[in-house]
Amino acid sequence: MLAMKKDIIIVDDEKDIRELISGILSDEGYETRLAKDFDNLKIELIKRVPSLILLDVWLDQSNADGIDILKVLKKSYSYIPVIMISGHGTIDMAINALKIGAFDFIEKPFDSNILIMSINRAIEISELKRQNKELLKEDDTITTFLGKSSIASNIRSTVEKVSPTESRVLIKGPSGSGKKYLAKLIHNKSMRNDAVFIIANTKRILGNNLENELFGEENSEGVVTKIGLIEQAHKGTLYIDEICNLDQVLQARLVQLLTERVIQRVNGKYNIDINVRIICGTSKNIKSEIENKKFREDLFYRLNVVPFNTPALNERIEDIPELIDYFLKVCSKDLGVANTKLSKEGYNYLQSRKWSGNIRELKNVIEKILILSPKDKNESLSLDFINFEQEKDEEGFEALVQKKMLSLSLKKAREFFEREYIKIQMKRFNNNVSRTANFIGMERSALHRKLKNLKLN
Q1: Among residues 225, 134, 242, 129, which one has the least CA distance to residue 183?
Q2: Which of 61, 189, 261, 305 is most buried by its number of CB atoms within 10 A?
Q3: Exposure letters 414-442 (e unless 16+ CB within 10 A, then b)
Q4: pLDDT for 21-56, tens place per residue?
């Protein structure tokens, strides 16, 4: 996979030194920007926050020396590693710099190998800290789109084709159907998989904070007070959940990003170059949003380069057993309980339910089962102890049996049971005979005959 170049700002008052270091770092695959003093550094910081700063202690004709600049950096940009360099350093100066927060202190003339090793270590440690924070927030990474259905198979096939490209993706589907996980899967299989995957969940951000959260903010002095989600995703992937929640102003700003590949922070004066892959998701009918003048048509066509549809869970019943096994594994680890199998009756029952909350609801049910189930590792989990809410618009099968079948003869009751059972299964599988036959364990031709005999054609 293609590694994304790290960005380093070199601050030194001597032009020859700046260019010498820049040449060394460029040969090692780094991108460099040069600054001769504090004012130049501030301009570069406003343009884009770097991966590391290389800072000289003594800066002639600067309104602040390296130690003073280091104090400012550690206050406003504490997450950026800083390596100090000096031709006239002392032990006390080095100790002071390290106490303030410098990663390292290197004396001139320096060995280029030592400099490169220190830079590599500083960036690696900074990346590890960021990754650890992400791991604490994330579920286990999904490496494939789960399921045995033709729908799941088609999505997997498209993911394999689309992921290595830079194409923008629009994922449509009901809430809880796995749009975020599909976006993460595309990122994991892309050329950007060693870079960040940032999620902008527009439902969880207050409307008046959305612009600041997405684009970042500067104060009146030009100091970056907030790095926006778009800038955080630089060289990686940004997933915008519920894209239709953006107002017209933010939609216009997103069009600028997609066409010019630049943004401005709130209160900012400079354009910031952005290299990011955009993936968006929506549970709304985006065509209706366009017709009602709530969503820009030009933005839709720019986002909808590769469209995906994540179907409701009720449309992919065959995939439920594999999803159950996945959530049993993930949730048992999260909850600190033993991973175990569900009973056969449990699988069948969960396949027979209606899932208005889709995959998210299934995960919640699995968590409930793991928490409330008896703690016997040697037995499959039963659902006898779980009380599931009844669908309001559907009479329970058990109630149907009690009301209708008890008054019938055995032959009539068997016929009635078969008819109602097959009606329910056909309804679950949207009248798809092949899928219904596969689930109930009949040959397709036999089910056709049974439907005809029961007058269910």
Answers
A1: 242
A2: 189
A3: eebbebbebeebbebbeeeeebbbbbeeb
A4: 999 999 999 999 999 999 999 889 888 889 999 999
Domains with residue ranges and CATH for the chain = 7-137 (3.40.50.2300), 150-311 (3.40.50.300), 314-372 (1.10.8.60), 397-453 (1.10.10)
49-97 pLDDT, tens digit each: 899 999 999 888 788 889 999 999 998 888 899 999 998 778 888 899 9
- Structure tokens, 5: 């170049």
Return the structure tokens found at 233.
Answer: 């995703």
pTM of the full structure:
0.73
| Alpha carbons 106 and 110: distance in angstroms, whole number | 7
Determine the angle formed by the axes of helices 444-453 and 410-428, rounding to 10 degrees: 120
